[in-house]
Write a structure and sequence with these properties.
Elements lengths: L1 H22 L5 H19 L4 H5 L5 H13 L14 H12 L20 E3 L15 E4 L8 E4 L1 E3 L9 H14 L3 E2 L7 H4 L5 E5 L15 H8 L4 E7 L11 E2 L6 H7 L7 E2 L10 H14 L5 E5 L4 H14 L5 E5 L10 H6 L4 H14 L7 E5 L5 H9 L4 E4 L1 H6 L22 H4 L4 H25 L13 E6 L2 E4 H4 L7 H4 L3 H9 L10
Parallel strand pairs: 4-13, 5-6, 6-7, 7-10, 10-11, 11-12, 12-13
Antiparallel strand pairs: 1-14, 2-3, 8-9, 14-15
Helix pairs in contact: 1-2, 5-17, 6-17, 10-11, 11-13, 14-17
């Protein structure tokens, strides 16, 4: 309403200026003409459906787009890079925007990467490159021997982001995109809402330590509401969140300013209360208990795939889980490895920067641990943490993943401009707010198509890269296919740089680098043996 009043006020001033120009002095046209133009622009901005910034900030929002237009002329003087030579979020955001809007995203005059920088990574093409297969949508089957309702998941999916953290419009746009493209939408730990169900896109229901959507009055796991939601046709898999990359070792956090009546109803908490989920689960407290709980969730769901998500911290704790799998001869259907560099919204800076294992190390460790204990064939691995481009998908599969999930990039696809106001409820583009006047800026019918286009073009890019390597499928990607520069004169493959275990090796004779951790890990406790 304030925006309409502001534009109406501008139009009134413009009308007065026109009246003065006609009835008093023609010099008033010098003021009237720009005022009329600004009024017309303001009305257009409020009515158009493509730019969330302009819907919330008519007229003045054009300053942002002006800066975007001039930035390519000056950005060569302000090139920012991560330490491994990959682009900063600003460049990733531009890539996502291009794909979401249906642009090709080609860049003239060659690479901007410093290919001689230590940490630079690349894959090798083949002189017998193959054409990208048309009409093929690569998927990965989730469902081990204990699963009776397997699910074929896409290579790139929407990572966990809860309603409450995101607006209703953002959730609907994400799920609408998933429905259009046939990929999965992880609900985040904030439960399933009507906004997840409006378009019918496939859901991975994430359950956190607060058990939102399946909790008793005192916050314990309640099987009855779990069965009601887990058996919904739209729910294709269930993911138990043990920890997350943005704040490993802490539970989920939702500021009280964002807990309105609808969020309160979805999560079963009082309105206006800051929600801090417990750091650990109460439904189990041992590695064996975790695997048994996963099996219980699978049975209650009617046989759907059930897995868990975690950011790797202690190697011994994960090896203890592996030992529990071996002892019980039971496994999750999938494990999502969340890198410590991941995250989309509010989180303590120290945790974001210094706690938890980065995705590359965590992913390779989980892959090797499962191989070493003989369970890799039964468990699919998902990678989550700053996945944005086709080469990201290819690299993560080379490092041990089967599929990927993206959160930050999907936020960009629905219009996030990284205002870094997620925790304030003042998101300027309606993505991460519960303020209805700010959220109205996000037009679902426009943004759901952008989500679909971004995911489709990114997977197509990954398929094109694989074909250029002379490979038939993503299953042909191995650590030998990914190279890293280790000093200005030397590059090595991931196969040569890191240790890769043989199937069952941990059960027979653990190698030196694994021996102590394996010996001190116990399926009876998360506390390591001394």
């Amino acid at each position: 309403m304030v925006r309409w009043l502001a534009v109406a006020g501008l139009a009134l001033v413009a009308a007065c200026a026109v009246g003065l120009a006609i009835g008093v002095d023609r010099l008033w046209w010098f003021a009237a003409a720009p005022l009329v133009a600004l009024s017309v622009i303001g009305v257009y901005d409020l009515l158009q459906r493509s730019h969330s910034v302009l819907r919330n900030y008519p007229v003045i929002g054009h300053a942002r787009f002006l800066l975007e237009r001039i930035r390519p002329e000056i950005q060569q003087y302000f090139v920012e890079r991560n330490t491994d030579g990959t682009p900063y979020d600003r460049e990733i955001r531009d890539l996502v925007y291009d794909r979401a809007k249906g642009n090709h995203g080609e860049e003239p005059f060659g690479t901007q990467r410093d290919v001689n920088a230590v940490g630079y990574e690349f894959v090798a093409h083949s002189l017998r490159a193959k054409p990208k297969p048309d009409g093929v949508v690569p998927t990965v089957r989730l469902g081990g021997p204990e699963c009776t309702k397997p699910y074929d998941i896409a290579l790139l999916n929407i990572s966990a982001m809860s309603f409450g953290s995101l607006s209703a419009q953002a959730v609907e746009a994400l799920n609408g995109g998933a429905a259009l493209g046939g990929f999965a939408h992880d609900t985040g730990e904030g439960s399933i809402t009507i906004h997840h169900s409006k378009y019918g896109g496939d859901l991975i229901w994430e359950i956190g330590s607060a058990y939102f959507g399946c909790r008793t009055a005192d916050g314990e796991f309640d099987p009855e509401p779990y069965v009601q939601r887990a058996t919904l046709e739209q729910v294709k898999a269930v993911s138990l969140k043990l920890s997350q990359g943005a704040k490993p070792g802490l539970g989920g956090l939702l500021p009280g300013a964002k807990v309105n009546e609808e969020v309160s109803r979805a999560r079963g908490v009082p309105i206006g209360t800051t929600i801090v989920s417990p750091p650990t689960h109460t439904a189990f407290d041992t590695p064996r208990g975790l695997i048994e709980f996963v099996a219980r969730l699978r049975d209650l769901s009617g046989g759907k795939p059930v897995g868990f998500k975690l950011c790797i911290g202690s190697r011994r704790e994960f090896l203890a889980i592996c030992k529990a799998m071996v002892e019980l001869d039971s496994t999750p259907d999938f494990i999502i490895v969340d890198g410590s560099e991941g995250g989309t919204g509010a989180g303590p800076v120290e945790f974001e920067d210094y706690v938890g294992m980065p995705l590359t190390e965590g992913l390779m460790f989980v892959h090797n641990a499962l191989v070493g204990c003989g369970m890799r064939e039964r468990v699919r691995i998902g990678a989550s943490g700053k996945i944005a481009s086709g080469i990201d998908i290819v690299k993560r599969i080379c490092q041990g993943a089967d599929f990927t999930l993206a959160a930050r990039a999907m936020m960009f696809a629905v219009g996030c401009i990284q205002a870094q106001a997620c925790h304030t409820n003042h998101c300027p583009v309606g993505v991460a707010t519960q303020d209805p006047w700010r959220a109205r800026a996000l037009v679902v019918d426009d943004k759901r198509h952008r989500v679909h286009q971004y995911q489709e073009k990114t997977v197509n890019s990954a398929m094109q890269i694989v074909a250029s390597m002379g490979l038939d499928s993503f299953g042909d990607l191995t650590p030998r296919k990914l190279f890293r520069r280790v000093d200005p004169q030397v590059t090595q493959t991931y196969y040569d740089l890191f240790q890769w275990l043989e199937p069952g090796e941990l059960l027979i004779e653990p190698p030196e680098g694994w021996r102590r951790d394996w010996a001190t890990a116990s399926p009876q406790t998360f506390e390591p043996k001394l």
